[in-house]
Amino acid sequence: MTSLKEEVEEKKKLIATLRNKPWRMKRRLKLLKECQAFVEEFEGALGKGKGRKLYAYKVMMAKKMIKFNRDFDNFKTACIPWERKIKEVESHFGSSVASYFIFLRWMYGLNLVLFAFMFGLVVLPEVMMGLPYGSIPRKTVPRAEQDRAMDISVLLDFGGYCKYSILFYGFYNDERTIGVLQFRLPLSYLLVGLGIFGYSLMVVIRTMARNSDEGGDGGDDGQFTFAFKMFTSWDYLIGNPETADNKYASITTSFKESIVDEQENQKDENIHLRRFLRVLANFLILCSLGGSGFLIYFVVKRSQEFANLDQDELSWFEKNEVEFVMSLLGLVCPPLFETIAELEEYHPRIALKWQLGRIFALFLGNLYTFLFALFDEVNAKLEKEKSIRNATIWGLNEYYSNYSSYHNTTDIPPPDIHPADVIRGPCWETAVGIEFVKLTVSDIQVTYMTILIGDFLRAMIVRFLNYCWCWDLEAGFPSYGEFDISGNVLGLIFNQGMIWMGAFYAPGLVGLNVLRLLTSMYYQCWAVMSCNVPHERVFKASKSNNFYMGLLLLVLFLSLLPVVYTIMTLPPSFDCGPFSGREQMYNVVMETIENDLPAFIGNIFTYATNPGLILPAVLLMVLAIYYLNATSKNYQNANLELKKKMQMARDEEKNRRNNKENTNQVMQDLEDLLPNRSLLPPAAEEEKPPPVLEKGSKSPKVAKRPGAAANGKGVNIQKDVSLAAPNPKAAVTHPPGPRGPSGNARGPPPGPARGRGRGTPPSRR
Amino acid sequence: MGSRASTLLREEEIEEIKKETGFSHSQITRLYSRFTSLDKGENGTLSREDFQRIPELAINPLGDRIINAFFPEGEDQVNFRGFMRTLAHFRPIEDNEKNKDPTASEPLNSRTNKLLFAFQLYDLDRDDKISRDELLQVLRMMVGVNISDEQLGSIADRTIQEADQNGDNSISFNEFIKVGNLQHIYVWAGDHYLILTYILLSVLQDCLCSSV
Description:
The structure holds 2 protein chains of 2 kinds. Chain A is mainly alpha-helical.
C-alpha cells in the first residue's frame, strides 16, 4: 500500500517536471500519457482523486464476480447426481466397484444428450407439425392387423399400434418440408442419425484425453504410503455420524488396498513356472472361445434352415434356439474364464482387464450372429418389397387407365382408398428397429432378473437358511455374492453399442435407454449395498477409466459400420420412413444442396469430394498423428527420467544421513530446525551408535529398491508375518466399537508441558 | 450471556493473550464469548465433558486425545488462557511474521509447533517416541476389527520402517517432522484450524439452541 502511494507520488512529480527534461517531444508525450493513466487508475485506489468511485466500484464488482463464480461452482458440484450414493458404495466396497457406478453415471449423461437430440430434432417436429396418426398409409395399422392391434401380446412384441408409432422409423413422413417453419424433416433425420455417432465419438475421446491427464502426481507415492495413511487419513471436518461410518469403512478399505499392492510387490518369482501356466491358461481359453464360436455358427445355420420350414411345426426350443444358446454361453463362459485365470496369478487389476478382454471376445461372437441374422432378414424383405412395389405400380396404372377410359378426362383424382386398405410393402427399417428394441428389452429383463435371483435370493437364502443348515452357509458355499465388475461393465458397453446401432431405425430407443439407466442406477446401488460383500482382495482401481473408454470406443466403431453401410448401399423402402421414394438415403442431402442452398456451395462440395483433394488430406492427417505420437512418447520418457532423478536424490539424502550416524548428527538435525533446544531429548547418552558397517552395506539394497527403508530386518518381517492372513469376510457394517478404553488418554498423567512454550527438558529421566 | 462476557475479560489480559498467541483483539473477544457458551457450569473453566459435546470431536477417533491436549498435565479444568494457548497452535502461519521480530522465540503456531502438537496426539506416554504399541492403538481406533491383528501389526511395522531412520524401532520427533515435511501433512495441520472454527460455530449453534 505504501509502495503504491510512493509510486503515485513519483508519477505526479514526473508529470510536473516533464517540461524540463531534455528529451524529444515524442518521448515526453508518451511518458505523459503513461503517467496520467497510471495516476488516474491508482489514485482512486488510494481514496482520492477522480478515479476513486470508479475504482471502488470496480473492486466491488470484482469481489462480487469472484463470489458469484465460487457459488456457481458449488452449485455445479451439488448438481452432480448420486454423488453421495456413489461415495457410500466406494467407502464400503472400494474404488473399483465405485468406478463401475461412475461409468454408469457418465453413460447416463451421454444418453441424456443423445435423447435430447433425437427428441428435439426428430420426434417433436413430426409430432407437432407432421400429419397425425391415421391420415396416410404409413401411419395407419393395416386393415388385416387391426383386430389384433391392441392385444397385449402383440404390443409387447412391438407390433400393432406400437409398430406404427413414433417409436419406429416407418412412422415418419417424407415430405421435404413440414409445417409453418418449413422444417426439413428427412434432412434432420439423417443428420441427427449421423450426429449421434459424431457426438458420442467426440465425448468419448475427450473423456479419454482428460483421464490420461490425471496420471500426474504419482511421484510421492512410493515414499511414505503407510505413514501417510496412518497419520493423515482421518478427515477432521466430518461432523455427521453417518459420514463418519463411511469414513471408517473407507479407511479400512484403503488399508486393505495398500496391503494387496504390497503383496503383489513382494511375490516370489518363479518365472518359468508362471510363464508356462500363463501360456496354458491362454491356450485353454482360446480353445473355449473357438468352441463357442463354432457352436454359434452351427446354431445360426440351423435356424436359417428352420426359417424355411413351416413356423407352426417348430417347438419353442427350436424357434428360440439361437437366443437360448447365446444366453447359455453368456452364463457359463465368464465363470469358466475366471477359474482358468486363477492359474495366471496376476495382480487383481490386471486380471480384471484380461477377464474383460476375454468376455469381450465372447460377446463379439454374439454380436456377429445377431447382425448376420438381421442382414438375412433385411435381404428377404427387400426381395418381397420389389414384388409388392411392382404390384402396386401395376395396380395404380390400371386404376388410372380405367378411370380415364371411363370418364374420358385427363385430370384424374388420386384413388380414394382408406389408408388402412392400401397395399403396404414390408418396411425393413422398422423391422430392424423392432429387433433392436426387442433385444434391448430382453437384455434389461435378463439383467434385472439375474440381480434379483443371483444376488438377492441368494443372500436371503444364505441369511435365513443358515439357522437350520448343517454347515455355515455364510463362510462356506454359497456365501454372499461379490459384485461382478467385469460382467456389469461389459453389459453396459454392449448395451450402448446396441443403442447406437438401433437409434437410426428406432428413434424411441434412446428414450428407453435413458429410463433403463436411471432405474439401473438406483436398483444396482440398492442391490450392492444390501446383498453383496466386498471382494476378498480389495484393489484400487486404476486412476483413469481409460480401459473402459477404450472398449467403448471400439464398440462405437463396430456399431458405426452397419449403420453407415445401410445408409450408403441399401435402398430405402418405397412407402415408409422419411427417405421413401429416393434411390439412396443420402440423396436427401444432395437434394438439399441443390434446391435450398446457394449455387456456389454446391460447387464447393463437388470440389471437396474430389479424390485428388481427399487423399492428400488423409495423408497429412496420418503424418500429424505420427508426429504427435512421437512427441508424446518423448515427453513421457523425459517425465520418467525426472522422477528417477528425484528419487535418487532422496535416496542419497537418506544414505548420507544414515552413513554419518554419530552422536552429533541428532544435534545437528535439531539445530537446523529449532532455535531452542528444549525438545532435544537427552538421546546422546542413551543411544548407542548402531553398527555403521551394517548401514553401509545396506545402501546398495536401497538403491535397488527405492522407497524401502535401509533396514534388512524390516524386509524380513514382511515375509514372515503374513500380510496374506485372511480378512474377516463380513461386510464392514459397523464402525469399530467404543473407541478403545477411553481412560487411556487420561491414564498416565501427561508429562511436563513440552513445546507449549519454553518447558524445561524432562527431569524425570 | 453476552454482556457478562465482556466484563470478565480485561484489557490487560487481552493484551497479554495477544502477545502470547498472536490472535487479534476482535478474534480474542469472539473466542471468549464462545468459551463462555461452551462453559455450561459457568465457572470460568471448561471440563472434558464440555468438549465432548462437540459432534466433530465426538466422532473423531482421536477426539479424546485432542481434548486431552487442551488440559495441562494432571488437571481436569482449563481456563481461558490455557484454551487460547492451545488454540494458538492452529492459527495459520504468516510469512511476514518472521521478519518482524527475529530475536523472539518461536511463535506457538509455527510449523514445528504444529507438528509437535500432532506428534503429541500419538505419543501418549510423552517419551518423545511413537512406539509400535502406540501405533497399534491408533490403528485399532481407526480401523477396529475389520482387519486382523496380524495385519495391523504388519502395518505398524511397515510404518515404522518407512519413517524410522536411526533404527530404534520407533518414530522420534525428527523423523515425524521428515514425514510431515511433505505437503500432505500441511493440509492436515491446516485442517486442524478449520475444525476449531467449526467447533466454535457449532458451539454458537449449541448455545442458541440451549437458550431457546
